[in-house]
Write a structure and sequence with these properties.
- The complex is a heterodimer.
- By secondary structure, chain A is α/β, with parallel strands linked by helices.
- Chain A contains 8 helices and 8 strands.
- Chain A has a single domain, classed as Thiamin diphosphate (ThDP)-binding fold, Pyr/PP domains (Rossmann fold), CATH 3.40.50.
- Chain A is 42% helix and 19% strand.
- Chain A has a 6-stranded parallel β-sheet with strand order 2-1-3-4-8-7, sandwiched between helices. A two-stranded antiparallel ribbon of chain A has the order 5-6.
- Chain B has a single domain (9-148), classed as 3-Layer(aba) Sandwich (Rossmann fold).
- Helices cover 42% and strands 18% of the residues of chain B.
- A 6-stranded parallel β-sheet of chain B has the order 2-1-3-4-6-5, with helices on both faces.
- Chain B starts with 8 loop residues before the first strand and ends in a 6-residue tail after the last strand.
- The chains are: A alpha/beta, B alpha/beta.
């Protein structure tokens, strides 16, 4: 499965009021390219903190579903976040990790996720729902399964390599925030 | 005092100097305290709360400042996410355990170098530093810090 195909599947699964936090690098760039929306909070830095931002949003907006789109390198950078999320276990948080076992945005250097099973870490940390999927169909089914299951973790194995003609997020950080706040206010 | 300034969400990593503040925050109904594993994680959680309309505080020891430089420089400052940092000042005036001495020398300078105002809390008027930091946040839209030495707030 290509990363952008996984992103398209995730984007199609979103409800009108869902909010998205996407990790820095190719994940945000490809999400911007395939499904730009003001409800997407594209990170441009602070690798590893997407899930923490998602936790702060989920605890503060219990009526909204927060979807974090993370990478394996970013999760490994901030594994403590899995423990904090598992501890509070907000039922409105969905944490999707696009795992290509590499730091793809910086040249494809390998990560420890080729041996560390992040979906098992999430389960052990207290996420009540955790799945590993490797195809678009299985990702779609796992996404369909999440409502009502509590804090959910889906690890989607994706291939290395970016889509052709991937864009760069053209909105400035302040614009990303302003657009996102509009989506938050829309309820 | 934090409640009076409208702060209604707290996260952070403990320090003995901050023990009573964290105890107090954890017992409040109107403020939620979320213990984080690291200071950068706390910055992320606070940023999320802020985007959700909360007014967050991040509590930490100055030994954690190194961990928050990047979340300040690449998240809170460029996106204009105003978070109040309450930072304890270990190693103040060189009187502390060896691991605190270097950070103790540069605590306020480190923050000011990346454009974050650092207001030191004084015994005579502890609220002044918090008021100044809160005003700075309103003016600039970016985080500001209140720095707390040992023995100032019981």
């Amino acid at each position: 499965m290509k990363r952008y195909s996984a992103l398209e599947v995730i984007a199609r699964s979103l409800g009108d009021s869902d909010l998205v936090v996407s990790s820095t690098g190719m994940i945000s760039r490809e999400l911007f390219t395939v499904a730009d929306s003001e409800r997407n909070f594209y990170m441009i830095g602070s690798m590893g903190l997407a899930s923490s931002i998602g936790l702060g949003l989920a605890l503060s907006l219990p009526e909204r579903r927060i979807v974090v789109i993370d990478g394996d390198g970013a999760v490994l950078m901030n594994m403590g976040s899995l423990a904090t999320i598992g501890h509070f276990a907000p039922p409105n948080l969905l944490h999707v990790v696009l795992d290509n076992e590499a730091h793809d945005s910086t040249g494809g250097q390998g990560t420890a996720s080729s041996t560390a099973r992040l979906e098992a870490v999430a389960r052990a940390a207290g996420y009540p729902f955790s799945r590993r999927v490797a195809s678009e169909d299985d990702l779609r089914h796992a996404l369909d399964e999440t409502p009502g299951k509590g804090t959910a973790f889906i690890l989607a194995r994706v291939e290395k390599g970016a889509m052709e003609d991937v864009g760069r997020v053209t909105h400035s950080p302040e614009e990303i925030k302003a657009r996102f706040l509009t989506a938050v206010a829309r309820a | 005092m934090l409640e009076r300034h409208g702060f209604n969400f707290a996260t952070g990593v403990p320090c003995s100097i901050l023990r009573d503040i964290i105890l107090c925050l954890s017992a409040r109904d109107r403020i939620r305290y979320v213990p984080a594993t690291r200071e950068d994680e706390a910055m992320g959680i606070a940023a999320g709360a802020c985007l959700a309309g909360k007014k967050p505080v991040v509590l930490m020891q100055n030994s954690g400042l190194g961990s928050v430089i990047n979340p300040l420089a690449s998240l809170a400052i460029p996106y204009r996410i105003p978070v109040l940092l309450v930072v304890s000042w270990r190693g103040y005036q060189g009187k502390d355990a060896p691991e605190h001495l270097i950070m103790g020398q540069v605590t306020t300078r480190l923050l000011e170098d990346i454009g974050v105002q650092a207001h030191v809390i004084e015994r005579e008027d502890p609220e002044a530093a918090v008021s100044s930091a809160a005003r700075a946040m309103e003016g600039t839209g970016i985080p500001a810090a209140a720095i707390l030495r040992r023995g100032i707030i019981e």
